[in-house]
Amino acid sequence: MSSAARGATTFPAAAGAGLADQTLRANLARATGTIRARRTAAAGELPDWEELRERGRRIKDGTLARLDEHLLTFEAAATDAGATVHWARDADEANATVIGLMRAAGFTEAVKVKSLTTDEIGLNDALTAAGMHATETDLAELILQLDGDWSSHILVPAIHRNRHEIGDIFRRTIADDGLTDEPADLAEAARLHLRRRFLDTQVGICGANFAVAETGSICILESEGNGRMCTTLPRTLIAVVGIEKLLPRWDDLSVMLQLLPRSSTGERMNPYTSVITGVSQDDGPQHLHIVLLDNGRSAVLADPEGRDALRCIRCSACLNVCPVYQRTGGHAYGSIYPGPIGAILTPQLDPTPATRSLPYASTLCGACYAVCPVKIDIPRILVHLRSQTPKPPAERAAMRVLAWAFGSRRRFERLQRVGRRLAPLGNRLPGPAAAWRRSREMPAAPQQSFREWWHDRRP
Amino acid sequence: MRASLFITCFNDTLSPETGRATVDLLERLGHEVEFREAQTCCGQMHLNSGYRDEARDLARRFVKVFHDAEVIVTPSASCAGMVRESYPLLLGSDAGDVPGRVFELTELLYDRLGVSDTGASFAERVCYHPTCHSLRNLGLGDRPEQLLRTVHGLELLPLEDADQCCGFGGTFAVKNADVSAAMLADKLDRIEESGAQVVTAVDNSCLMHIQGGLRRRRSSVRAMHIAEILAR
């Protein structure tokens, strides 16, 4: 798998599994409800929150407007600091680069920091195919890796699992039958499993939340400290960084480090924030490789109406407030980027018949836009992407006829009269009418339209 | 004031009683209402379903019909939002100042006419569902509830998770019918738990979806547009 998308099922078809799974719905409702309340409180206590959002938006827009220059600045600064910068046009190039670096260093094992970008390019599968192996060290990512599962939430990848399910996975894979489902015991089992690997493994692999052009630094935010183990203990560190992660200036981090934790976990400050600038003698990794990844991003940048999606800082606030995501879970989106941001990002990064159903996976309720820390107008981009999507012929014909009827008063009034006569058929028609009737009664057609009443009323 | 009624194609065809109530209410408050019969549809359905060219034609038509109307009033937050937010994007300067002259009914009453009491009487228990476009596009806030509170005999009951979408979403209701139904089920639960006899809102499209669900459940709760309450 070498793209954001997973599988070839459209959203409406894939949504069924999540909707039918009562355990999943309950897990999701509880988890998103908790994070949502924390975000609201964390954002609400800052009097200048709206101003911060606006600054975040401007920083990202400014970066994207001159991304080519910032990337070269980053490359020069990172190289000066002792890192080696690689460029990857797509997932295959990025995977080949990582595999080549591991091979050159003479290692087949790596420990990984939670990274969406490496999930996007399917790095773990590519490593396996090359006879190598990477251990996920983020607790949630580890759970998924042990279970052969994949992420359903940007911040909380195993949000679809409760602790009893996690206990079952651990007892099956890394712990004995005596393990309880208590969170502390589960964490201890993971700790014992991972500690040996941290000490033995010579290659660390990470992504980056931000990359600062003027200093050549990469910045990683995490909550467990396991990420820092991966970025400090191994001799070689390989970072795979999407080109949209750039920030021009060091000072820009101050805005992002306020926006991101409050939007994602609802914390005032992120627990483990690591900034890595090149290499230091006898301290931390002695070889730092940074793979700058395009994988469709340049094409997104070329679309003036779609490019705002690249502002995203992967906080997941939009998932937590999305009424659709809460009902279906993340897997229905068939992408490692689920929820509202996934619905605008995935079809742009990876346009396929399946991902083209994603812009329709929204009621356009606007809850996502209201919380986005970099003010991505997700509903507007959804509508834009819908306009780019090939339509089913029957729908296209019906919409054209309607538009033609709406084009004149006389035709519209005739349509109203015909519609009224045919209304009783609505209870038997297939297609959209049948989809409506599955959960709702059809509306009763009134005897008279408003305009007929108005007409009669005037002398 | 002379208000030009933008009824919306949906209300014109499926909810004429909302239009009649809007006319009655404004006339009772001493305003003149006109209805331009050339109007048809604002193009929202086409735009949101991905038919931008068709939507642009309808937007152009709307601007032509209403170009010299002083104040345009509509009993639909989502259609008001369409004209106000999307017309400038679709038409650029051709939209003129028409978008700025469109008001949703409660917005017109509360902000522009300074009405807080419409003089209505409606002795029932009511809960108010703030539709997404009224809340997040128009920013109506609690204006509709302020108007409902002054209705004689009306008991306004709180609705849990009020700001959660009902699951209508235009063609979403049929394209993603199962997700839509799951969202609706939760909304209906909250409505029934509120103890209300009537659920009201500023958009009949959402109310059609809610009413359809209530009838399927054989619920005793009725859905009713806010204009029909304020005109009583």
Question: TL;DR?
Answer:
The complex is a heterodimer of chains A (459) and B (232). Helices cover 51% and strands 10% of the residues of chain A.
What does this structure look like?
The complex is a heterodimer of chains A (459) and B (232). In chain A, helix 3 crosses helix 12 and helix 16 (339-349) packs parallel to helix 18. Chain A contains 22 helices and 10 strands. Chain A has 459 residues and is of the alpha/beta class. In chain A, the strands form 2 sheets. Chain A has a 6-stranded parallel β-sheet, with helices on both faces. Chain A has helices spanning 11-20, 22-44, 49-65, 67-80, 91-105, 116-120, 123-129, 139-147, 163-173, 183-200, 226-232, 252-264, 297-301, 317-321, 323-328, 339-349, 367-371, 378-388, 393-406, 409-422, 432-437, 450-457, and strands at residues 84-88, 109-112, 133-136, 203-206, 210-212, 217-222, 236-242, 246-247, 272-276, 287-293. The termini of chain A are far apart. Chain B contains 12 helices and 8 strands. Chain B is globular and about 50 Å long. Chain B has 2 domains: 2-112, Rossmann fold (3-Layer(aba) Sandwich), CATH 3.40.50; 125-230, Rossmann fold (3-Layer(aba) Sandwich), CATH 3.40.50. The longest helix of chain B has 17 residues, at 177-193. Chain B has helices at 9-14, 16-28, 44-48, 52-66, 77-91, 105-112, 132-137, 143-149, 172-175, 177-193, 204-216, 226-230, and strands at residues 2-5, 32-35, 71-74, 102-104, 125-128, 155-157, 198-201, 222-225. With 232 residues, chain B is of the alpha/beta class. In chain B, the strands form 2 sheets. In chain B, strands 2-1-3-4 form a 4-stranded parallel β-sheet, with helices on both faces. The interface between A and B is large, with 58 and 65 residues.
